[in-house]
Amino acid sequence: CAAIFWLSGANRSSWNVSFVPLFFLVFIYIYEKLRRKKTLLLLFLLTLAWSFSLNFHPQMVFLLPVWICALDRRLKSAVLVLIALLIPFSPLIVFDLRHDFLDTRAVINFLTASSANNAAISPFRLGYSLAQFSPPVFLPLPALGHYVPFSLLLLVIGCLFVARNRRYLYFFLVPLISILLLSFYRQKTWPEYYHFLGGFSLMLLIFITASRNRYLKVVILLLSLVVIWENYRSLVSYTNPVSYHYKRAAILYMLEQNQPYERLNIVNDFRLGEGLGFSPIREYYEKPTGLYHPQLKFYISTSDGVGHNQTRNDFGYYSVSKVY
After folding, report:
1. CB 195: neighbour CB atoms within 10 A?
2. Which of 18, 88, 130, 198 could be bridged to 175 by S-S, CB 3.0 to 4.6 A?
3. Which residues make Cβ contacts (< 8 Å) with residue 101, sequence separation at least 6?
């Protein structure tokens, strides 16, 4: 019920983050079975699922302590664990060996990224990390947004619950690791990309806590049904202003206005993290061997972009203006 409540508002976009809850649920299922009966097969499957999840998103590394607790010291299990770890990473290993460790260097650059040159940025930003952690907790109720006090309250409730029920400690450990480790990361973080797993884990823990009371279980069920219904209505009626639909419409509009020339002269001033996803659409529709218009350029940005003029046409979150 907790998973349905949370995921009904979480998976509206098809990208690698959307697989985080799926792999976490698979990990929990195998981990709980392994705790009841330790077998080499379950250990192999647990490691395989975790290794696959790391290929989809790096925040799954927050499950490392939980995975370590599931290991045993037998040599036979060590061999199986190593095989399970290598199977999902084998394509990456082969690629890196053939391309001068391109992905490995990218991972190292990500881990070592720092804003040390900016003295205004603290080396430990617990408040910032907690504020970024809050939105993933409230995916079913986005109006709460960055409401840090309520997030702290949920963390306290989870802490008190696991103090009496140690078997659920790993549910609390995941958000705690997420918040603390990302406090040391001195670059900008996006809530859904960095704290998605931690928010989901805490929500599951809160629902487990509430399920001990039969009246709260009924409330949870009713609340879940309301959230599912509201999200269903949103899915069938809401058009994302930054979706593929609008980006494609903007590219086709520019190509039509650019006739008889096939190549587009485009300028933009998108802020960091905005305007993503236009390139593959443009590459698909634009002829690579055509000619550029000798005079016409297109300025594309958000609707409040400073370069827009009276020729502006709006496409959801984006706007296009002709510039001569």
Report:
1. 26
2. 198
3. none
Q: 139: helix, coil or strand?
A: coil
Count other Cβ atoms within 10 Å, centred on residue 247: 23
In whole angstroms, give the CA distance from residue 136 to residue 214.
Answer: 27
Q: What would the two tokens of residue 268 be? A: 């933009």
Angle at CA of residue 60, ends 16 and 74, nearest 5°: 135
Structure tokens at 319: 């706007």
CA-nearest of 256, 228, 270 to 141 is 228
Confidence of residue 295 (pLDDT cuts 50, 70, 90): very high
CB 6 within 8 A of CB 227: no
Are residues 45 and 28 in contact, defined by beta-carbon separation less than 8 angstroms?
no
Q: At 267, is the secondary structure helix, strand, or coil?
A: strand
In what helix (H) or strand (E) does residue 320 lie, and over which residues does it extend? strand 318-323
DSSP-based three-state secondary structure for 269: coil
Neighbours of 164 (CB within 10 A): 7
Cα–Cα–Cα angle for 23, 26, 31, rounded to 5 degrees: 120
DSSP state of 270: P
Residue 322: predicted pLDDT: 94
Residues 6+ apart with CB under 8 A from 129: 179, 180, 182, 183, 185, 189
Place of tokens 């925040």: 59
Shortest CA distance to 285 belongs to which of 267, 259, 307? 259
Tell me if 255 sits within 8 A of 285, measured CB to CB. yes
What is the pTM (predicted TM-score) of this model? 0.70
Going by the DSSP 8-state scheme, the letter that residue 289 receives in this structure is T
Q: Please tell me whether residue 99 adopts helix, strand or coil conformation.
A: coil
pLDDT tens, position by position, 112-144: 665 454 556 677 888 888 888 877 666 556 555
